[in-house]
Amino acid sequence: MNQSPADNIYLPKVAIVDALNDEIPEVKTVHWHLENPEDQKQFLSTFGPGMFCLVTIPGKGEFTLSLPPSPTEGKVFFTLRRVGVCSNAFQEYKPGDRFALRGPFGNGFPMESYYGKNIVVVAGGIGLIPLRSTIVYILANRDKFKSVQIFYGAKNPETLMYAEDLKVWEKGGAEFYLTVDSASPGYTGNVGVVGSLFKKPGVTVNVDNTVAFVCGPPIMFRFVIKDLLDLGFKESNIVSTLERYMKCGVGKCGHCCVGVSYVCVDGPVFTYEQLKTLGEDI
């Protein structure tokens, strides 16, 4: 059977910017839709938490962006920080501007395999971007999961991502814990690294029948992994995403090869048990 262009994730498709909004300094969210309605319909039915796209900015180049929306939301957007030529150019886009994308790519988080389990989400800084999709998905399917605990930390209150989402998550559906490394005037919440939340009075981190999602800067990741292992988590029950320069999306160019794995096709989602076999310094 012939594959239609809408079904082919490897073909670039034209997307149109709907709106942009500031998240924190140097970080913006770009809302968009695919120009072809059939492409849009196919995309919304295909992508899942933890997947990514390859985005082309005409005249600048192609780069990788994770997908922070959940398929339960029926909308798509990217959240990105200014770090290079493409991301700088993308943040200067206006509603109506066009770009191209390929995807969605990657294995993503196998959410259905986590049904019936307790969930622990630990995010640091902009590490919340790839984990946002899992949180929204879990809360939209709350009856399919047991207890849900969310631990989120940032450098200071001004760098807390997704302010409106945080307000929603604080209201219910999960145990929500927030911290910053250093407080600003008027801040009355917890101060300390995100792992310190595990030891707060009244906090009991679930371990049995539990999957932990972890994403954040390398130093935070190392300490949180140690904390989770000390609590009794199995390495196979700690899951994260691995960021690499991904150029082709099909495991051919070799840019994202780590050990014997290609992050674009074998990942970007790996268990900690798998990460340890890749030869990474984690």
TrEMBL record:
Cofactor note: Binds 1 [2Fe-2S] cluster per subunit.
Molecular function in Gene Ontology: 2 iron, 2 sulfur cluster binding; flavin adenine dinucleotide binding; metal ion binding; oxidoreductase activity
CDD domains: sulfite_reductase_like
Keyword field contains Iron-sulfur: yes
Taxonomic superkingdom: Bacteria
Alphabetized Pfam families for the sequence: DHODB_Fe-S_bind, NAD_binding_1
Gene3D superfamilies named in the record: Nucleotide-binding domain of ferredoxin-NADP reductase (FNR) module (3.40.50.80), Translation factors (2.40.30.10)
Domain FAD-binding FR-type: 7-111
GO BP terms in the entry: pyrimidine nucleotide biosynthetic process
Residues binding [2Fe-2S] cluster: C248, C253, C256, C264
Keywords associated with the record: 2Fe-2S, Iron, Iron-sulfur, Metal-binding
Cofactors demanded by this protein: [2Fe-2S] cluster
Name of the protein in question: Oxidoreductase FAD/NAD(P)-binding domain protein
